[in-house]
Amino acid sequence: MTVERSSALIRSIEKCKLMVAVRTDTPEQAYKAAAACIEGGVRFVEITFTVPDAENVIKELSADSRVTVGAGTVLNVRDAKKALKAGAGYIVSPNCDEKIIRFSKKEGVISIPGASTPTEIYNAYRAGGDIIKLFPFVQMGGLGFLREIRGPLPFIRYMLSGGLNLDNISQYLEVNPSCILVGSSILKRDLISVGDWASITGLAAKFVERITGYAGEISPV
Q1: Residue 95 and residue 111: Cα distance in Å, rounded?
Q2: How would you classify residue 163: left for phi > 0, otherwise alpha for psi between -120 and 50, otherwise beta?
Q3: Distance (Å, rounded) from C-alpha 217 to C-alpha 204?
Q4: Which of 71, 123, 132, 169 has the smallest C-beta neighbourhood within 10 Å, fewest atoms?
Q5: pTM across the whole model
Q6: 155-200, pLDDT tens digit by residue?
Q7: Angle at which helices 77-86 and 54-61 pack, to 10 degrees?
Q8: What does DSSP assign to residue 158?
Q9: 87: left (phi > 0), else alpha (psi -120 to 50), else beta?
Q10: Cα dist. 91→114, 152, 207 in Å?
């Protein structure tokens, strides 16, 4: 991925705001859950490496031109290599591993490392993280923490990981994060367990609609 394409992808993430993290017990569930989200209008889907055979799920989903697929819970360079070979467009981790960040940047893909303290956040940014995943967002202080950390570190792009639902979505959007990562608010385990993909599509569509509607409200006339 060229610098221009990487920059364009970051702009697209920041425009869409929503990324869904898929974490299921089987690769079949992961594929169907992700496909359901895509049908609902989600354009960024992260397949976590806790999913068995995650790289093949990424490969299958990458054939769909409507979505950009990334790899999540990437804890080592070995899995990062598997993800990129499968077609992942970005690498997401729950922690800050400089080896993974450097590898991602060398390969020209977007790096989204996780961090939860000012030191970790800045170190992740300095190592080359394009967007810093605040995780676990609610437990680390939520929106209040983000407002405080932006004082000394306003130049960093932030992904908010955790706590979003249809009731508080406007509060999350008001602080203008680069992205919001959603999991169980859309991919409810009871729906996945019975294969109710239509309901997941419906939930995904509601989140996309709310975000699109909010963006329309703040657009200049």
Answers
A1: 12
A2: left
A3: 20
A4: 123
A5: 0.94
A6: 999 999 999 999 999 999 999 999 999 999 999 999 999 999 999 9
A7: 30
A8: E
A9: left
A10: 11, 26, 23
